[in-house]
Amino acid sequence: MADIRLGDRAPDVKLNEVSADQYNLKDDMKHRPGWRFLVFIRGSWCPVCVEELRQIQENLAYFSEEDIHFTCISTDRADNLRKMKQEYNFPFPVLADEKNQALKDYGVLYHEGESSPYDDHGEHGEAACFLLDEEGRLLYQHKQTGPFGRPGVKDLKKIVNFIRKNKKEFASSGQEVKKPNMPY
Question: What residue stretches are annotated with the Thioredoxin domain (predicted)?
């Protein structure tokens, strides 16, 4: 399983977008510059996941003003995700990762054995959220092994504000640019 650390460049994502052809994270970041939340959901069948996406959609104006964009990734079948995207009119890319490549790259693919206390045995993706800066470096990650406890939209806003106030700045030479201490 991948181990991505804060400050690392995030793996590129090349998957099918459910209402288009091919999606490439690096290309998307050029076309929609700014920060990026990658939101991994279990599937269109998960009411908690769908509600999370609906809350994001309702708050897109705030995130757009902050130059923050969203991309959703799931192991669910493309046709199921396409129906979900159309039903809720989600304006952000929804990607089908049916071969689990992005989930492996981001370390959110889990295997639940027969001894698991849950009914969903086998390989599956778990809910996760990654925030990338404009260069594709990891600023924040949240992974979990259950449907509850993921950060809500209010939490995502707090995370963005905290990171913006406390993020180190780097010059083109790669040297840290010192700035005054910021109160939380």
Answer: 4-165
Chain segment 4-31, per-residue pLDDT in tens: 888 899 999 999 999 878 999 999 999 9
Looking at residue 123, what is its pLDDT? 60
Instruction: With beta carbons less than 8 A apart as the criterion, state whether 139 and 133 touch.
Output: yes
One DSSP character per residue, 62-100 reads HHHHTTEEEEEEESS-HHHHHHHHHHHT--S-EEE-TT-
Tokens 């290309």 belong to residue = 27
Cα 154 from Cα 55, distance rounded (Å): 10
Which of the two residues, 50 and 148, has the higher pLDDT score? 50
Q: Give me the domains of the chain, ranges plus CATH numbers.
A: 14-152 (3.40.30.10)
Whether 93 has a pLDDT exceeding 90, the answer reads yes
